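In this supplementary section we document a worked example of the pipeline. Step one takes a protein sequence of length 425 as its only input; no multiple sequence alignment statistics are reported here. Step two produces a three-dimensional model, which step three serialises into structure tokens for compact storage. The input and output of this example are shown verbatim.
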Amino acid sequence: MSLQLEAYAPQDAMALWWLGQTQGRPLLVGQLHLAAGRRKVALEYAPAWLARGFALSPDLPLQPDVFVPPERDTAAGAVDDARPDRWGEKLIRTLYRPGRLSVLELLYFGAPSRFGALGVCLGAGRYRPGGIASAGVRSCSAAALAALQRATAAVRAGEPLSPPQARLLAPGASFGGAQPKGLLAMEGAQWLVKFYPDCELDTALVEHATLCLAARCGIEVAFTRALPLPGGAHALAARRFDRLGAQRLHVLSGATVLRACSAPPGYPALAQSLRRLAPARAIRAQQREVFCRMVFNILVDNTDDHEKNHALVRGAGGFYALAPAYDVVPSGQALGCQQLWVGKAGTHACLENALSEVHAFGLTKDAASQLIRGIVAEVNGWQAHFAALGVKARDLERLAACIDGAHLKAQRAAFGPRTCVPMSR
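The serialised model returned by step three reads:
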């Protein structure tokens, strides 16, 4: 099946809209146009947005300029966060088969269910989104989940989709990743449902268990559920944090925030960015949260902690707060390196490195060490916690090879069990 839109012809300019109004119609933000041999998408704010809007990200100040991203195959600043992930790109190729697929087309076909509060359409006179609106599934029943799983399997296999199947899928509802996914309506909210078809582990259940363990450490995490699938595996359902009821929330990925920093892209720079993005009363708590997430990722061997797996959500007052932690799962590789900069030793995944720049997190070394001891106390019991949530012994054994391997176990031993303190928020 191809849902190629007959009215669409490749073009080099489109309109960017703000969809975050609690009441009223969408507002025109400005014009997007292709630049640098059609390998970049630039933004120019509209006069009305310059007068009454806000800077979409730190690298897009409210100025009458043309903002061109530094990297090829990206869009300017926060606009890049509105485009689909790798799974969404695959859906767009399957559903629409557009004659051209620049970053501008990816933004256009990202669907009304796209992540965040920005929208893209062809003209500046009226907001008319491209793509189809995803209906998702309306229950987490076995039949509904099976239908969603079949639709994602058809896309992966290059098979034709029926119109109902196409409307189960959401090209732009996620920040990053290539895992098949769709939408689920549950408990009055939208949930993203993610499948792991090629994993030896029951990765969805492991991810749910890991996030629950992080919550025991006092870390704010996304609401998740492990949904049973035929054959004993699970899908992961995560409640969208870019929605508050019917309202769309503006979200900046860690990639966008860190790109605007002069420091190496990493946890210290992310913590420092909160000094200008978070409200003054919340800065210290938010920086502490970044530190705890960094330490937890090190200790559970989550080395896929790249910039797109961190985000900030814009509040009503114009300030930002860390989004709940998401996409946190043991990598099972024992690489000993994080994706993000940890401390003075770069990305080296060790607690000594985590303590090397504690000032960037607004902490003293003693306070940081106390936080580490609290996290260690919880991570020491990870096997019992995972087993209680249904993770099979076979998967526990594979995970233990890394989480309880010599490198990480020795680090935990150096910080416990003395003076373990509860990680209350």
